[in-house]
Amino acid sequence: MPEEKKEKRVVRKTRPSEKKKEFLIAPEKEEITWRAAEYEYTEKTLTWFIVVGIVVLVIAITSLLSHNFFFAIFALLACGVIFLFARRRPDVLDFSVGERGVFAGEKLSLSFDEIEHFSIYSHQGHLDELILKKRSIVNPLVRIPLDSQTGEKVRVFLKGKMEEVEFQESLIDIISDRLGF
Fold this sequence. Notes:
Blueprint lengths: L31 E6 L8 H20 L3 H19 L4 E7 L2 E4 L3 E3 L4 E7 L6 E7 L6 E6 L1 H12 L3 E2 L6 H9 L2
Parallel strand pairs: 5-8
Antiparallel strand pairs: 1-2, 2-3, 3-4, 5-6, 6-7
Helix pairs in contact: 1-2
């Protein structure tokens, strides 16, 4: 028979001669919140899917002719994954930057100790991005979309917490942008 745990409660009775003390809680510093799509979605046309399919098919056939069967299978599987991600629509998330860190809905929660530096990246024809460099080897960059007005507020807030570094696009960034990812 399991024992029941009894909670002990300590109640402090105040005497009539004691004055009731009120403690004021200092309000938290500013928290910047906004709502945006998880990433900027680009509609892919049937032509896009056909071109990618042909390129992958050529790679797979070339791999088979050179007796590299595993790479041919890998290329076909990668094509399937690319097609799945190309059709996926982004979720709309609530983002926030405040004293506790950076949050993206329930998908991401970063404290300032986990972030090395940040950048606000603007590229014409697209939303601005808050780019966070995590202190991690695996997937070190986090990109969060935001508009230019929110970007300035976030920049001012984060400059008090960490260093701002100018973001340089990599070759992969340029290629994925051209492909619509």
